[in-house]
Amino acid sequence: MTDLQGRTFTLASRASALAQVQTNGVAQTLRALFPEATFATSFMTNVADRNPDATLASLGSTAKEGKALWTSDLEAALVDGQADLLVHCLKDVPTTLPEGCEIAAVLERADPVDSLVVKSGERWMSLDELPKGSVVGTGSVRRSAQLRRGWPKLKVLGVRGNLDTRLAKLDDPNSPYSALILAKAGMERVGFSERLTSDPPGTKFPYAVAQGALAIEIRSGDAAAKVLCARLNDTDTELTCAAERACLQVLEGGCSLPVGVVTNLSEDGELEIFGCVTSVDGSEQVECTVRERVSTAADASAVGARLAQGLIEKGARKILDEIRAK
């Protein structure tokens, strides 16, 4: 048994309000589970935070670089010993980690869907109700592609910033935005549930890989941190996210590529995962579904890899290559 007595563990994350809420929540849980140890927090900005007006695609010239925008500075602190546990939104974590780093826990997943948020004072309740030509804001290539495919009557305009900033841009009477599409889990975690208008149907708006799940990244040789993480890990979430991330890894996708999933795990261990890749203009979409019984993360990863191969066989590679070329 690893002795935790007297050790101080530093939990680190981004400095955004959402990241701080998430990290403080994990720290509070650990303090209750391990009163013999001390838990501190540290919050850092990253490349994307320091360039709030730049598009994510411009900051990361490749999908892998785009993902690393959110994690590379934190991982440097982890490797250097300035932090012991990194608290990430798993959807922002590259599928390949730096040497010496590993995901040691995946916490129970919140609702992974995207939600519609309309301008304050307006009464629209769904994307279907928005008048023709209404502007919907999002910083996600996936969401933009899905909006253009499912609701071609609407206009899509980029928007970046933390949740407070984006909501302020939405509600500004002089802004062009009629609504935003945001992750439901993040809005709920920071106490903005009352702003959620509705959830677009999952069949038309599959969510991002691992959206709604938090992950804890540690140094590979830190046995004490592994003991902590073993108490935090949620097996069902680990399995579903393993399948989704394996699919993304085979596709070599990232946060700037339009890959969407919907995953369900039954009580008897049958994993069903739907995946799609959508062209940026919404004109093309390839889809595939795989079902298989799983019991380990390796099983689930194999299912995700099969899904990716199915998508490739149906034309996903062509769509992704065209996006990368642009």
TrEMBL record:
Q: Where is the Porphobilinogen deaminase N-terminal domain?
A: 10-225
This chain's protein is named hydroxymethylbilane synthase
Which GO MF term does the entry hold, naming one? hydroxymethylbilane synthase activity
Q: Which cofactor does it need?
A: dipyrromethane
One of the protein's GO biological processes: heme biosynthetic process
Domain Porphobilinogen deaminase C-terminal, by residue range, is 239-312
Question: In its keyword annotation, does this UniProt entry include S-adenosyl-L-methionine?
Answer: no
For this protein, the Enzyme Commission number is 2.5.1.61
Q: Which organism is it from?
A: Roridomyces roridus
